[in-house]
Amino acid sequence: MILRLRMLSDENDNFVRDFEVHHETTLLQLHNFIIESIGYDDCMASFYSTDQNWAPLQEFSLMDLGDEQFEGAPIAMDKITIAELVVAERTKLIYQFDMLTDRAFYLEVVATSEPNPELEYPRVSFENARVPDQYDPDAVPADDGSIFDEMMDEFGEFDGDDNYDDEY
Fold this sequence. Notes:
Elements: E1 2-9, E2 16-22, H1 27-38, E3 46-50, E4 56-61, E5 75-76, H2 82-85, E6 92-98, E7 103-113, E8 123-128, H3 147-153
Parallel strand pairs: 4-5
Antiparallel strand pairs: 1-2, 1-7, 2-8, 3-4, 3-6, 6-7
């Protein structure tokens, strides 16, 4: 099964990436794909499973801390697949890529499908707006890549008819 994950950022409301990944992809493989696809330098990162209100439940860390016997201790990313976390569409994950300043992306399963034999997975299936700068959260303008603004640009040359009188 292929899962479509939509990734959003709270730093740029226009930023969207849709990833299609095989359900047996480990979180470590997903981490590596995200870093490569958005052009970030490799970094310490964690995934968090969440409830429907984005409250973190369980941490999945890049490093194996060896404390899995303790409830709530981080689990290594390479030891868990996406299929083990996904219970239904709309399953949510937080991908924290900057531990010091608490910066993160928000991922949600938005669709499932059968694999297309003509495509390679994982893959980026949709993207909008520039990726927030890895080191400077203020580097990307808030209005960068607005889909609404792009659509409205098509109507920019419509001036209307100044001779139109709406009174009878």
